[in-house]
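My main concern about presentation is that the manuscript never shows what a single data entry looks like. Each protein is reduced to its one-letter sequence and a matching series of backbone shape codes. For the editor and my fellow referees, an illustration may be useful. For illustration, here is how one protein appears when written out as sequence plus structure tokens:
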Amino acid sequence: MVNESEFIARLQDPKSKENAFRELLQLYKERLYWHIRKIVLNHADADDVLQNTFIKIYRSIDKFKGESKLFSWMYRIATNESITLINKNAKRLQITNEEYQDRAINNLTADVYFEGDAIQLQLQKAIATLPEKQQLVFNMRYFDDLKYKDIAEILETSEGALKASYHIAAKKIEAFLTAD
């Protein structure tokens, strides 16, 4: 890929926006899908959130000022869209977000797109027991292998707080997995 500021300029230029956006889709759709999928857990929901994320990116790219990396900005949008979906679905079902996440975990085994084994299912159950922020931090660090600096940019918090959240999350997951 060309340098980021040139790419952003192409995304913000009405003459090159369509082609640049197609490039952006190719570069990030799979990565963002899996980030979203780890939050919402369900394939159909992840597809919907991914589509909403790219619509929001397309509509908002002109307002992007480059105060963070483009990828961090897009991850933030994807994260917020994922949380919005969970909140909306939980509210619609008149249950808590935690109950909604429990249902999503229980439905994983029936999801034809879930390719995990029993161990991965246990890990997902363990992650679901974490508070929302710890879930996000754990997923971004453990699965997406993001640097704390990038996660801090995405979640708009300090690296120190993230390191503490990750450490606590890892301990809770370890305790959950070794409890039986």
In short: The CA atoms of residues 171 and 177 lie 10 Å apart. The chain has nine helices and no strands.
